[in-house]
Each structure stands twice: as structure tokens, then as C-alpha cells.
Amino acid sequence: MSRSPSLPSMLQVVLVLGLFLLLAFSFTTLFDLPVHLALFIGWFVVMGLGIWLGHDYRSLEQAAAEGIYNGTGAILILLSVGVLTGTWIAGGIVPAIIYSGLNTISPGLFLPTTVLICSMTALATGTSWGAAGTAGIAMMGIGQSLGVPAPITAGAVLSGVYFGDKLSPLSDSVVLASSMSGVDISRHIRRMLPVSLTSYCITLALFTITGLQYGHHMDLDRVQQVIYAIDQHFNIGWHCMIPPIAIIVLLAMNKPAFPTISFGALLGVIWAILFQHTDPVTALRSAWVLPQPDTGVTILNSLLANGGMQGMLGSLAVIVFGLGFGSLLEKTGIIHALADRLEKHINNESKLTGCTLLTAFMGNLLGSAMYFSLILTPRLLINTYDRMKADRHLLSRNTEFGGTLTSGMVPWSDNGIFMTGVLGVATLDYLPYMWLSFTCIGVAMLFSRIKPMKLNMVTPATDRNYSKSLNQTFSKSNSQ
Predict the structure, then answer these.
(1) pLDDT at 468 over 60
(2) Given 50, 216, 336, 409, which is the most exposed site by the fewest CB atoms within 10 A?
(3) Whether 162 contacts 131, CB under 8 Å
(4) What is the pTM of this model?
(5) What is the rounded CA–CA span in Å between residue 226 and residue 233?
(6) Interatomic CA distance for residues 204 and 225, integer angstroms
């Protein structure tokens, strides 16, 4: 008769997580090795601990497989955005947006304009990935043409897309954070508004000040070279705006992201054939990989070669390994051991907020996926909130801030890998400019100190409904 698995000690938790973080950091920063290898090795480290604790290999493998399965939606969107990027460049859609932006956007106001455009796109579509893969790519191209450092432009893009994503009722992160906390979506969004709008205004001010500094030193001759090169190599016109408008409308109508973005990629192929006079085989090949362009402008060449599904395969491997790794951490009890240790230090609302934000960040850091963080955080802390008679809207708000806004900060997380692949900027390079994320977390902590939210005991009916939903969601995981 096999013994029941035991929980890991804090020494075992520290050794396993310390080894993984050491591998991830050294591989990516010291040895120029892909983080894929660190995650791959991490699987066997955690599995070794799991077997030592009494788990059988089959159950560990099944846990990793289920973690990957739960992230299938994100994987499909990742691949579809890669396809869309390639076909929209071949179809002249992305070049047309860059062309229009260079002719209309004031150089000094480029950065705050980037934040506004990306936030409106994400708010309307409910997807940070879709907004970054469309409006974000175009703004990166405009920024490079204007001479704005790519990491700063990427920071403006990320500030915009994450702001819109976490306030859109169409966003999967909003739905997940609110449902896992047992609260209504509309009230969840309303409770986030004071902190979110305060942080948004601060972020816009910071990017405005920064943009004005660069506006005085921009090389307008280079801008004209880019405009001329686009005009010579692409057929630019009003027709190029039809696909992005169509996709934004479909996503705003709450249509599923994967088929909608794939349909947008198909429009890119059609546009390449009809308006750019590309032969059908070359147009279709752009969905996989783009040929190396020769426009005579180095910046434009690098931008127009960044697209296609092939460029997303490395990111796909990281997400697959990351999802499995996070599930193994939960299966072996490592995540729960950390949460139990944190809970012992919680005795007021400020510490409760800080613990929630930290737990959500650790979900991204160790679980390598925003979905993992948004599911794990309420699951671990909801009993603590109820014990302290804290409003569950505080839990959903803090989970959203800590899970969504830090997801792009981790180089081996799904969002970090995706944003790096789409925007062409390394995670650690754009990290210092994710000003919305930093200000939002800071303002949330400040509000918890000077204006604590009203504490409310959750009604038994609400608690029963949440418990029923939670049990259904995790029935497979708990049966292992």
C-alpha cells in the first residue's frame, strides 16, 4: 500500500525554487542560453521532489499535462497573432498604419499618444495580446522611425494594453479574476477604477514629459525616408484600414479571439494579393515567415521582417514548459507552502493587499503564466479574506493588479515571451518603462493605507456559490 504524499518543508521549497531561479537567471543573463532549458530542467527538479514526497510519476506527468491543456487558448492566440502580423505586413496594413502615424502624430506627443491608442484598442477588444500584436506593432514602427528608443516605446505600448485589458468586460483576465473571487464583473471593474485612473493619469504625465524631451531631437529626415520607402514599396490607401477596423469590431462584439484573429490574418493574405500584387503562394507563405525586405531603410527592413508563425514557435515552447512547471509546483504543494508562510504575517489590510500582490506576482514568476496566477491567487487567499472579513472585491482587484500587470515582467512567462516576440524588445529592457504597472501597484498599496476599503463579511450564500463554482473548476485537479 503506497503512502500518502507529504507536504514539502520550507527548506525543500527554498532549495527547489532557488535552484530554478538560479538556472533561469544564469541561463538568460550570464550564459546566453535559452530559458527553455531552465524550465526543462526545472520539470525534473520538481518531479524529483514530488517523488521524494510520495507522489507517483504518472500523477505528476498528468498534472503537467493538465496545466498545458488549461493554457491551450493562450497558445492558439499566440500562434494566430504571429500569423496575423506576417500577413498584415505583407498586405500593407501595418505599413499603412505606420505611414499614417508618421504623417499625423506630433513627435513630441508620440509616447502619450501610444498609451492612449493602445489602451483604447485593448479596452475595445478585451485582449492585451491582440492590441499589442496590431496597434502595438504599428506604434513600435512609428517610434523607431521617430528615433524614440524601442524600450521606451514598448513601455508605452504595454502600459496602454494592460490598462485597457484589465478594465474591459470582454477581457478573459477580468472574467477570471472576478469569477475566481466570487464577485460580479461590473462591480469588480468599478472597484478598480479609482486606482486605475489615478495611475493612468500619472503614467500619461510621465510619458508626456519623456516624449517632449525626445521630440526636440528627432531626425525628421529619417522620418521622411521611412515615409518615402513605404510609399515606394506598398500600395497605401484607405482600403488598408478595413481589416483592423473589422477585427476590432468583431472582438468588441465578444467574438472568440482565436478565430477572429485568424480571420484577420486571412484578410491580410487577400489584401496582399489584391492590393500589393503579391502572388498567392508568397502571400500565403507570409503567414509562416516573411522574406527579408530591401527597402533601403535599415529600420524599416528590420520591422517588416518581424512576423509569421515561425517566429512564435520559440515562445510557444516556453509557454508549454512554463504551464507544466507551474502545475507541478502546485501539485507538489510548493505553492501552498509559500502561501501558508505568507499568511502568518497578515494582520491588517495593508499587509493583506501586499501579500495578494506578491502572491500574484509569484504566480507569474514561478507558474510562468498569467492564467496560473489569476487562478492560484484567489484559490490560496480567499479563506484569509473571509477570515479577516475583508471585501472580496478587494481580493479580485488585487489579484487583477498583481496578476495582469506583472505578467509581462517575467522573461519566461507567457506574456513576457509574447511581448518580447511581438515588440522585438527584450523583457528586461522594457521592464523599467512599464510605468503603469509600477504606479498602479504603488497606488493600490497607498490606498490600502490611507483609505482602506470597507470590510464586509461575505454572506453564506455567496460563499456557497463560490465554493460550488470553485469545486467544479478544479474537480479534475483535486481528484489527482
Answers:
(1) no
(2) 216
(3) no
(4) 0.73
(5) 11
(6) 29
